[in-house]
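Need a sequence for this fold. Nothing fancy.
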């Protein structure tokens, strides 16, 4: 029976792919993306995040395959800058979620985690006596300084962070580049967070959003990775900014080994640096049951489907068969 131990670790995966105007389907042992001009095979077990943009459709078989291979599927807006929906994570364990909830629910522990996040981003600062509000003020000043320095370095016009998702093209090139770069970063961090069983919504610095913890973790890398890319590209060109930013981000994520860093960094800032990021023996059951392959031995027993009005569509299962190996058993989410 298949378990998560047979899947490639998150740290070994590619960062993301963005698709638009085509159909994603399963073919043979992998996925393929069809559009008007080409058919592109995708390595299903190597991706951490698949972003589906406008004009895309996806088959049930493709979604099932992505879930079975611990790849986050996100439905996004044009150029990947707005998240509409996403799939579930790659673990059924609640161990890290419970630990995260305990930390965020204790004011002292929450402040300690926030200080570790800021110390990781801005080493050398003494935060021992600082409140959350003071730390946020310091962080805002540091980020504004970084923006100003990069604008001067690349000769980009910069009047501050200001854009409207509903009027995307009205934003200046730097703001559009920043939004696009950060959207890519958010997606990869989100994939890492849910792959290990953390909650995307339980943030320590950011609060009140379903992706608060995603924003917390993404902030660890912005000034290092995405912000410099955005200013450099926006200063160099005004055409095709979004696509160029996505390509540059994917290369930068590879060069900085971002996917390898996310989960250890989360464990570090939460104070769980010794966490092996694996599942215990008793935690594998939910995943193994939900992903059981009909071709494998050791299928799980279940009650037969009801018959008569309101029953499921008959798929040709013999009436005297009282069990089957099923890959889609309902499990608590």
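Here you go.
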């Amino acid at each position: 029976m298949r378990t998560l131990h047979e899947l490639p670790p998150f740290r070994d995966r590619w960062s993301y792919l963005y698709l638009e105007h085509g159909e994603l389907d399963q073919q043979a042992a992998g996925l393929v993306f069809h559009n008007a001009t080409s058919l592109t095979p995708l390595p299903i077990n190597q991706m951490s995040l698949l972003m589906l943009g406008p004009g895309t459709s996806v088959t049930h078989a493709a979604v099932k395959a992505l879930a079975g291979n611990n790849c986050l599927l996100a439905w996004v807006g044009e150029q990947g800058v707005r998240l509409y929906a996403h799939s579930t994570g790659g673990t059924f364990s609640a161990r890290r979620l419970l630990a995260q909830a305990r930390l965020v629910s204790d004011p002292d522990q929450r402040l300690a985690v926030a200080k570790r996040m800021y110390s990781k981003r801005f080493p050398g600062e003494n935060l021992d006596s600082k409140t959350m509000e003071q730390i946020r003020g310091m962080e805002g000043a540091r980020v504004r300084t970084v923006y100003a320095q990069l604008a001067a370095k690349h000769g980009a016009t910069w009047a501050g962070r200001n854009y409207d998702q509903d009027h995307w093209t009205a934003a200046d090139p730097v703001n559009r580049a920043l939004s696009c770069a950060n959207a890519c970063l958010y997606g990869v961090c989100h994939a890492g967070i849910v792959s290990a069983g953390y909650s995307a919504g339980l943030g320590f610095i950011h609060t009140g959003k379903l992706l608060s913890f995603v924003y917390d973790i993404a902030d660890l890398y912005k000034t290092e990775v995405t912000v410099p890319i955005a200013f450099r590209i926006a200063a160099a060109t005004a055409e095709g900014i979004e696509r160029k930013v996505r390509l540059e981000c994917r290369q930068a994520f590879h060069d900085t080994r971002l996917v390898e860093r996310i989960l250890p960094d989360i464990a570090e800032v939460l104070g769980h640096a010794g966490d092996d990021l694996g599942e215990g023996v008793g935690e594998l059951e939910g995943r193994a049951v939900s992903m059981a392959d009909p071709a494998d031995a050791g299928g799980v027993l279940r009650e037969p489907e009801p018959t008569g009005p309101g029953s499921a569509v008959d798929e040709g299962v013999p009436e005297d068969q009282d069990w089957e190996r099923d890959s889609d058993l309902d499990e608590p989410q």
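For context: The longest helix spans residues 132-154.
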